[in-house]
């Protein structure tokens, strides 16, 4: 009987074709093994990833001052998956709490955000 050997970043179920590891999972070596969950808190993986080091910060979190993904402080946001820094809210918009929210509050007429 033949078995399917999938490359790293790929897995098979029930002898079917090799498919990319789903988002949030990885597989480091070729073989018959499954993709596994292993990213730290507030991180995720893109499809087909082969290393845990490829875990990226989720929306609203960044690795600005540490190895861990921490939430964007109030007044800053990050809208995509990645280790990019949080950025300041655009002029006229603000966010009052830390975390994944976007700067979706609008300043009242004749005021601006700092």
Choose one word for the global shape: elongated
Number of domains: 2
Q: What portion of residues belong to β-strands?
A: 15-25%
CATH topology of the largest domain: Tumor Necrosis Factor Receptor, subunit A, domain 2
CATH architecture assignment name of the largest domain: Ribbon
Number of strands: 12
Structural class: mainly beta
Give helix % range: under 10%
N-to-C SSE series? EEEEEEEEEEEE
Q: What is the gyration radius calculated from CA atoms?
A: 19 Å
Low confidence ranges: none
Terminal CA distance = 68 Å
CATH class of the largest domain: Mainly Beta
How does the major sheet shape up?
Answer: 2 strands, antiparallel
Give the overall pLDDT as a whole number: 81
Account of the 3D structure:
With 114 residues, the protein is mostly beta strands. It folds into two domains: 1-54, Tumor Necrosis Factor Receptor, subunit A, domain 2 (Ribbon), CATH 2.10.50; 56-107. The chain has no helices and twelve strands. It has a two-stranded antiparallel ribbon with strand order 1-2. 25% of the residues are buried.
Question: What descriptive keywords fit this protein?
Answer:
114 residues, mainly beta, Tumor Necrosis Factor Receptor, subunit A, domain 2, 2 domains, two-stranded antiparallel ribbon, two-stranded antiparallel sheet, 21% strand, elongated
In short:
The chain has 114 residues and is an all-beta fold. Helices cover 0% and strands 21% of the residues. It has strands spanning 10-11, 19-20, 25-26, 36-37, 43-44, 56-57, 61-62, 70-71, 76-77, 87-88, 93-94, 105-106.
Record the SSE blueprint.
Elements: E1 10-11, E2 19-20, E3 25-26, E4 36-37, E5 43-44, E6 56-57, E7 61-62, E8 70-71, E9 76-77, E10 87-88, E11 93-94, E12 105-106
Antiparallel strand pairs: 1-2, 3-4, 5-6, 7-8, 9-10, 11-12
